[in-house]
Amino acid sequence: MSDGAAALTGPDGVPRCPWALSTADYVTYHDEEWGRPVHGDDALFERLSLEAFQSGLSWITILRRRPGFRTAFAEFKIAAVAEFTDTDRERLLADAGIIRNRAKIDATLANARVLAGWAPGDLDALIWSHAPDPVGRPAPKALTDVPAVTPESTALSKALKKRGLRFVGPTTAYALMQACGLVNDHLETCVARDSPNGPSSPSGV
Fold this sequence. Notes:
Blueprint: E1 8-9, E2 15-16, H1 24-32, H2 41-54, H3 59-72, H4 78-81, H5 86-93, H6 102-115, H7 122-128, H8 151-162, H9 170-179
Antiparallel strand pairs: 1-2
């Protein structure tokens, strides 16, 4: 998402964020998921984990492996992943269906163990407490108007790290905020900007 293009019209005649047009997988993800509000500790743990795995890679690499990740990590149920053993760790390191990065695997397992000790709803509440007020955030006209880091994502990163989570830097935190609907970074003329239950409707899950 690094060029300065405004929303582009795809083969179906619909304007979308330019990054969504490179593959059919991206079109579906853009139209149906990206920027739509996500709630629930397990669901947010999944997004946080996958954003960490994405670090240094393209999102399409993670998106296409997401079914494998879900299988490997017990559907990202925090309580289940927190119980993973050294045998599970070795299984993950040998699993070609995911990204076999030792540091990221270890961080995901460690994060699950930390989160297992939180009260239900704590992760959801902490993350969403950092959603900025949409008033004063004009719709981006082009990709160059979309930040990689914001004061809110920096604060969220610090809050997560303070409570013991790993691989949650400000850039990863902002990608999480974009993906989970805390901010609406669909471009001004993108069809998904104001779609029903979309990024501008934080009550929808």
